[in-house]
Structure formats: structure tokens, C-alpha cells
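Reopening this one. Same input as before:
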Amino acid sequence: MAINTETFRTSADTAYEIICSNILAGNLPPGTKLSRRKMAELTGVSIIPVIEALHRLENEGLVESKPQWGSRVIELTDETIQDRFALREAIECQVIRILCKKITRSELNELYEIAAELDQYEIENKLDDGFWDSHYDFHLRMAQLTGHKSLEETLHRINLFNLLQRAELTAHSKELPIPEDNHRRLVKQIESGDCNAAEAEMRNHIFHSGLAQRED
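Same output, byte for byte:
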């Protein structure tokens, strides 16, 4: 019997969305074994779309699989977290250097608008879902503006991992000082056209973010 490709793809997308949302919400914590049968029950689809969904989540860094062992939600070890921050630093520093050389005034205005919204969230200490959505939009938009799809896709995968990490964090016992123009200063450096200064600002921004995620 021929497989309806469109139906299969829709089922795989459904399985992906349900499993991914459960991982990011903390309902499937790091280290949780993801049996195909149980994931089929959770998502309401058959085994084959579940396998496709798990492969996609593995490619995005949320799931790890081994032969004769199966799949599980990735563990949040110190080594894994440091590795992802190193990857993010490499990607975002390259992004900001490219933008220094090619960004347009309308694109700068767009980034300033998102950055101002983000900075206001931080000034008011409202680090809720709205903040994290805007934070993702800001950094992903910069990657998109480079015109390099690989940079955009890699940053998307890193962001999913960061969401998983945040699902496991407890409240910080001490706060790090955050500049009132924390994100706008990145755009200002892009506008300056000074690639070295912009890269240095991005490294400082990511370093600050890494400390904030690890403080306890």
C-alpha cells in the first residue's frame, strides 16, 4: 500500500511539536528515556512519524540516540553547556562582523526596535515568555540578515537547547548588573561599522548571558 507522504509529514510534524514542547516545558526532563511506543501514545500518531520526529530533535540537539539503547532527552552536563556557549559565541561573533559590513538603515531600525523592547523587559525585570520570545527574535533576526542560512539554522538549534536549559534553572540567588542598553549597544556597534569593536561587544554580551544562566 502506498504511503500518503503529506499525511506522514503532517503526523511527523505533530509528533515533533508535541515532544519538543514537552521537553521545553520540563515535562520530559533531561535524561528521560523516549521510548517510541510511549511517544506514540503521547502524540497520538504511529511509530514511524515518531521516529522521524526523534531524528529531527536529535539534529536540533535536544535528543541523543544510541544503537541498542534508544533515545533520551539530552543531559545538561557542564561540558555540554560550555560546548553550546562556545558554539553560540563563534556563530554570533561571525554574524555581527558580517552585519557591520552590509547592514542597511532600515535593517538597523528594525534591530533597534526589537532591542529597545528587550532592554525595557530587563529594566522592569520581566524575564517572562515575552522577553524570551523577543530575545530569540533579536538574535535570530541578526543571523537572518547575514543571508547565510547555515548561521540561522545553527542559532535556531542553540536556542532550543537554551530553552531546555532554562526549564531546569531555579531562581538566581544573586543578580548580575545589566546595562539599561544591554541589547541596543550591540546594534550601536553594528551601526559604527567597526567589526572588531562589535565582535568584542558580542563576546561580552554572551559572556554575561552565560554567567546569568549558571549563577545559583
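So the earlier flakiness isn't reproducible anymore. For the record, Confidence is low (pLDDT under 50) at residues 170-174.
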